[in-house]
Amino acid sequence: MGLTVILAEKPSQAKAYADAFQVAKKTKHYIEIAPNQTFPDGATITWGIGHLVELKQPADYKPEWKRWSLAQLPMIPDNYEFRVAKGKWDQFQEVKRLFKEAHVLINACDVDREGSNIFYSIYRQTGVRQKPVQRLWINSLEVDEIRKGFANLRNNDKDLLLYHEAQARQISDWLVGMNASRLYTMLLKAKGLNETMSIGRVQSPTVYMIYQRQQEIEHFKPTNFYELTAEFLAEKGPYKGKAAIKKDKREEVEQILHQASITEGEILPGVIRDVKKARKHVKPPKLHALSTLQAKANKIWKYSPAKVLDVVQGLYEKKLVSYPRSDCQYITEAEFSYLADRLADYQKIVDKPFEIATARPQKRYVDNAQVEEHYAIIPTKTIPTAGKVQGLSPMERNIYFEIVKSALAMFHRDHVYKETTIMTNVKAIDFKTVGKVELDPGFKTLWSGSEPTKKKDEEPLLPPVNENEVVESKVAIHEGTTQPPKPYSEGQLVQMMKTCGKLVDDESASDILKEVEGLGTEATRSGIIETIKRHGYIEVTKNIVSITDKGRVLCQTIEGSLLSSPTMTAKWETYLRKIGNGTGSKEAFIQNVCKFLNHLIEVTPKMVEKTDIQAAAENSASNEPLGLCPICKKGQLLSRKSFYGCSNYKAGCKFTVSKTVAGKKLSPKQVSDLCQYGVTKEMKGFKSKKGSIFSAKLKLVEGKIVFEF
């Protein structure tokens, strides 16, 4: 058979593969495994370090492309060339040597299109040709799964198509990123904004989605509404109800009461017209894909999506959970079988014993037809010792337990409760009351004590009542205020990126986005959020995502273009899938992207011309001291991440000014005025706790900032 060379994506993955066999030799560049049943002549495992090979930079093609200039756009190379990534030359040279000596090559990178791209980019860069290539396709790094995978290797037909798909995506993202980033940066610089604007097919519409939500919040005008509520006293206890009446004016509700001869606050007889009792069942939740795990971990523990991916990747490399970058919430009967065999062990891990309700696979969780490349994220067959569990970090333990519990929930009982609906009539006005009584917590016991409970969401306990029972009633007019939409949390942002098809008016584009699951992939969404944070387009404070002034400028300049809409991703992904299925052409796709760039270069100057850059321009220069500290009179006020603070803080000066006051972002000029003169000019756009917008000056009084109306 000759030498078999296996390429893993990274060293940890290579080590996991080697653990499944007897190791003959280890070096810092490869691992040799001894002859065995699967590899009679042995094999050598080497690895990338992520992307060993990357697309060249513009200056590598033409020296004049090094300088950022509008005259050089669009930069479209005749041929797209690759280079060894910086700092990875030694590893590449070893991989190249091994590839040349190999009789058979095995692509054992991650099982997705980027894994195919990593392998073939390295393979092409080595200059090696005409070697037989096979594909390892597994979802777990457990010893049994690795051995089974290597014993049942796939051919590389699909792998090659995925590589062409991935490379088309990679080149097109390079074209858009390199050209559009320079285009917007140079145009805005000419207008006075000294910032680098990073533009991307996925990152830009993501920023725009956050901008749209912020616009909805800022332009929201709260209005009052009026409802009828009532307090009742039955023979066996009190309860409350609400009429199906909601009006914009109090007089309208008062008129309804007047017509019914009801005086607000008066004790009147009421009659229980109807009592309905229904037994309700809630099924255990579906198994986790990466995005649902990220959303839940963010909601409960405020972990960022990027951190969750890092943690679950680590658990995968420790062989405790299945492949983390999964977008699937189903498993096959094979996975269900091993989970069922180890139920007692998993229950012991999370210390949640329960009687098994069903040991049969249910379509809600187990469906072979729904599993394509990966199945849901579940615990592996490896049962960790108590010591290993204790050795996990608190974050690892939380995530691991969540994955185990979601798998155990499949075998648990439904959550069952009794819902009682009472209709009480007071002088021809019906009041509805709904209450719940839990009959069986079921699967919810798995999470009891580990999740915060929201008492305000719980339905009230109701007294036992009967139809036609007469009750005492006291009717009141309740005044409420409409609330603005809430800003996104990081976890919600991941879900919004996934479901953005709902925001697209074009029906066909919306359908495609639902099919490809929105912006980015399970593997890339958290990275995209980190990228737009790093570029200064958004800020995350206490898990709440908000747009920055720089982000606003970006969104105003891309408004109305494909760069602001998920539709571009829909169109791209449709054609990329065709390339992956062998029915599309990489060349045709890239040609269309070049046409888009030419159009963008033509129309963008007009959009930039009408964009207001003042706030962003002020903030881009805010690294300069804003003036003398008004408290200690010694230090300078400097810009920090979320506040302005005195440079003399080490000597004890604690004076700070938050960058956001009552929902309004303060500019460096406003803070400078506050410190210099003790008061600002009147400013619009402050928001009260009730959501109403107001104007005020900010005044410095004894080191504290107060409103002056």
Automatic annotation (TrEMBL):
A single BP term in Gene Ontology: DNA repair
Domain Topo IA-type catalytic: from-to ranges: 159-601
EC number: 5.6.2.1
Gene Ontology CC annotations of this record: cytoplasmic replication fork
Pfam families in alphabetical order: Topoisom_bac, Toprim, Toprim_Crpt
Enzyme class: isomerase
One term of GO molecular function: DNA topoisomerase type I (single strand cut, ATP-independent) activity
Catalytic activity: ATP-independent breakage of single-stranded DNA, followed by passage and rejoining
CDD domains xrefs: TOP1Ac, TOPRIM_TopoIA_TopoIII
InterPro entries: Topo_IA, Topo_IA_2, Topo_IA_AS, Topo_IA_cen, Topo_IA_cen_sub1, Topo_IA_cen_sub2, Topo_IA_cen_sub3, Topo_IA_core_domain
Endoplasmic reticulum listed as a keyword: no
PROSITE patterns linked: TOPO_IA_1, TOPO_IA_2
Keyword match DNA-binding: yes
UniProt KW keywords: DNA-binding, Isomerase, Magnesium, Metal-binding, Topoisomerase
UniProt cross-references to SMART domains, sorted A to Z: TOP1Ac, TOP1Bc, TOPRIM
Membership in a protein family: Belongs to the type IA topoisomerase family.
NCBIfam families on file: PRK07726.1 (NF005829), topB (TIGR01056)
Protein known as: DNA topoisomerase
